[in-house]
């Protein structure tokens, strides 16, 4: 019998108020076949993929170390984009304003994971909130951006990715407040 495994990623959670606001924005824009669930919206820092359940303990020390080195910091939303750009878009996302603190946190987390021998998707980090995934590619122009919003990144969370876009927080590490 195969060992149970979990599909994991590290992310910054969004406050419920922002998730609800983005959910209302999504509801006002019909025609997208697979909106991300508002309660699951998050900012992915490192995608780990499938891991055996007993492998979770190896992630705790790197995450705790990273969280202890970073202060909580403000973030702000900054307009829409798509992957890929142009007429064959498959993902609609909300950008975040440039943040040296966010870039430093993501780089530190990825460095700590690599130093601990933990594999992760090494694609370059690009700060965004995935709002929708499309079954068939199409141009995504013409959407008005959600109202600008600010929030505080105050904790690093290890999430499990479940069926139909559900995400379960497994562990959280608070960023420093002083």
Task: Describe, in plain words, how this protein is organized in 3D.
With 178 residues, this protein is α+β, with helices and mostly antiparallel strands. 23% of the residues lie in helices and 39% in strands. The protein contains 3 helices and 8 strands. It has a 4-stranded antiparallel beta sheet with strand order 2-1-7-8. A hairpin with a 5-residue loop joins strand 3 and strand 4. The radius of gyration is 17 Å and the shape is globular. The chain starts with a strand and ends with a strand. 24% of the residues are buried. The mean pLDDT is 92.
Spell out the key features of this protein.
single chain; 178 residues; alpha+beta; four-stranded antiparallel sheet; 8 strands; 23% helix; 39% strand
In short:
This protein is α+β, with helices and mostly antiparallel strands and 178 residues long.
Could you give the order of the helices and strands?
A: EHEHEEHEEEE
Biggest sheet strand order reads: 2-1-7-8
**Largest sheet report:** 4 strands, antiparallel
Helix content: 10-25%
Q: Output the structural class.
A: alpha+beta
Percent in strands? 35-45%
Q: How many beta-strand segments?
A: 8
> Distance between termini?
48 Å
Q: Which residues form runs of ≥5 with pLDDT under 50? A: none
Average pLDDT, rounded to a whole number, is 92
Q: Please count the helical segments.
A: 3
Note the overall shape. globular
Radius of gyration: 17 Å
